[in-house]
Amino acid sequence: MEVRMELISELREKFFKKLDDEGPPDPRGFHPADIAKIMENDWLRRFLEHNECNMIDSLNMLWETCTWRRKFEVHEITEETVKREYLEDGICFIHGKDREGKALFIIRCKLHTRGSKDFNEVRRVIVYWFERLERQTNGDQFSLFFDMADTGIMNMDMELVKYLISLCKNYYPNFLNYIIIFELPWLLNATFKIIKSWLPPKALPKMKFIHRSTIHTFVEPSDILTCWGGTNDYTFRFVPEAQNNMDATMNGKLDNKKVHFAEGSPMTEQSPDNFGDQPNEDELLLIDPKTITFNKKETELVGTITLRNIRTEKPLSYKIKTTSPEKFRVRPSLGVLLPQEQRTVSVVLQPGYNVRGLLHNDRFLVMCLPLKDANMSPQELATLWKSETPREQHRLRCCDGESENNETQKSHSILSSGMSDNGRTVDTLFYKISQLKESNAKLHNDIVTLKYLVLFSIIMGILLAVMVVYILRIDIQNSMDQEACHIPRGI
Q1: For 209-229, what is each residue's pLDDT tens digit?
Q2: Mean pLDDT, to the nearest integer, of 56-77?
Q3: From the CA atom positions of the chain, what is the Rg in Å?
Q4: Which residues of 105-119 are buried (b: 16+ CB within 10 A; e: fewer)?
Q5: Whole-number Cα distances in Å, 154 to 81, 193, 228, 445
Q6: Element (H, E) at 135
Q7: Percent of the chain with pLDDT over 90
Q8: What is the rounded CA–CA span in Å between residue 85 and residue 88?
Q9: Going edge to edge, which strands form the sheet with 176-182?
Q10: How would you classify the pairing of strands 103-108 and 142-147?
Q11: CB-CB contact of 228 with 212 (8 Å)
């Protein structure tokens, strides 16, 4: 639908007039980033397209969207503020494109069990992915892909589906291209009749039911995964958004010439002996040790480093990045150090990875900036790091503490590059084992549910048989009584 520029300008003017007349519904006002988006023609165009150029409906939707975004604190939802395990469990992720070149947002329903997660946190994770899609596609449409293969009754979360639809319907205008349902089990046919009732009439044609034999009609053939009958062997592993544009890091494989840290900051790799070396003159931050050594701590593998602000007059902010963000969790990765203050930072190896999988070129980068105000909020700090260049950078490597302490293994350290492939194999095995455990638990739930259904069916069958026998006996008795009434009593 063609939207004229006059309509876009009119929608913008009406919004700001309403804002002047009524004021924002939230005492904090609308978020400045959303106000800035209203100045963008493309965002307003989507509201008009969504509402078929109806000005009143477009204005109401724009107002409600900005209200919801402030109340839900959409701009505060980041990889650090949502449950990380919900991002990494592979239930939903972005991968591939449909036949019209739109990104696919995949929901693997068999990995989700209804009621097993904190739904408020699930909603925040969904919004994180929607916002990431907005940034990744520049607001272009995407297709919801429900992978329903091997899905049971316990995996069908109607509340989650309803929430996904409500986001597209109310707060993300003209964002949805198709709703693709792959391999819907016959047992769940009725649920999608309910789902259809939640869609506006114009959205019903967007819903497409496909199978292995027809998936190529809606999904780009090169993006059809092997589990869908295709040749793409992609396996989901969460990669933070800042890593998307890295040239040298793909699926854990690193270029030997450069190490690329988040936000595309390439630095020539140095030898381990030079790591963390900074000129003593005007040095801001002292780091001890220069190597992050991982040791067993209860059920986790943890390494620690101590950061110290060696200046006596100025506070500073530090930020820590890694070449393998999917492997490590840094606590805290961003913070403020007062003059002479020191802080211990923990680096935890993520579940599903084995210390033997640590690569010799896994690296950490510690950066720092001098501050004028030590009382900056997390949002202000994040904004500062986006706009400022770090004053100082320290590069650290990592190693296995047990291996380092064992003299017989030093010459064959598990961090050597020759073990990289074996490490990745171990990581893959750990991941597959965890997936098998989840599948086994879901299969057990399905079997229990099936047993109850079978028992219910048997009981209903017995009751039906009893009713049929009872009805037949009454009919036979009535027939015999009628025949007795018509027998002649004499000649």
Answers
A1: 999 999 999 999 999 999 999
A2: 96
A3: 30
A4: bbbbbbbbbeeebee
A5: 28, 18, 22, 7
A6: helix 119-137
A7: 41
A8: 5
A9: 92-97, 103-108, 142-147, 176-182, 207-210
A10: parallel
A11: yes
Residue 261 and residue 322 in contact, taking contact as beta carbons nearer than 8 Å: yes
Which ranges of 173-291 would DSSP assign to H, the alpha helix? 189-198
> Which of 111, 115, 119 has the alpha carbon at shortest distance from 90?
111
Q: What is the total residue count of the chain?
A: 491
Residue 271 has pLDDT above 60, yes or no: no
Token pair 């009593």: residue: 489
Supply the DSSP symbol for 411: G
What's the pTM? 0.53
Q: Among the listed ranges 50-54, 427-431, 447-451, which one has the minimum average pLDDT value?
A: 427-431
- The structure tokens listed for 236 are 């989901």
Torsion, Cα 41 46 52 54, to 10 degrees, reads -60
- Going by their DSSP bridges, the two strands 207-210 and 176-182 should be labelled as parallel
Percent of the chain topping pLDDT 70:
79
Per the rule left: phi > 0, alpha: psi between -120 and 50, beta: everything else, 252 is left
Residue 303 pLDDT exceeds 80: yes
- Given a contact cutoff of 8 angstroms between Cβ atoms, the answer to whether 100 and 177 are in contact is yes
Location of structure tokens 């009535």: 478
Average pLDDT over residues 119-127: 95
Do the beta carbons of residue 102 and residue 144 sit within 8 Å?
no
Q: Name the DSSP class of 30.
A: S
Torsion of CA 430, 432, 434, 438, to 10 degrees: 180
Contact by Cβ (8 Å): 25, 67 = yes
More confident residue, 263 or 470: 470
Closest CA to 73 of 336, 378, 381: 378
134 CB burial (10 A radius; 0-12, 13-18, 19+): middle
**Angle (CA) 304 244 414, round 5°:** 40
- The residue whose two tokens read 């039911």 is 209
| Dihedral sign, Cα of residue 441, residue 446, residue 447, residue 451 | positive
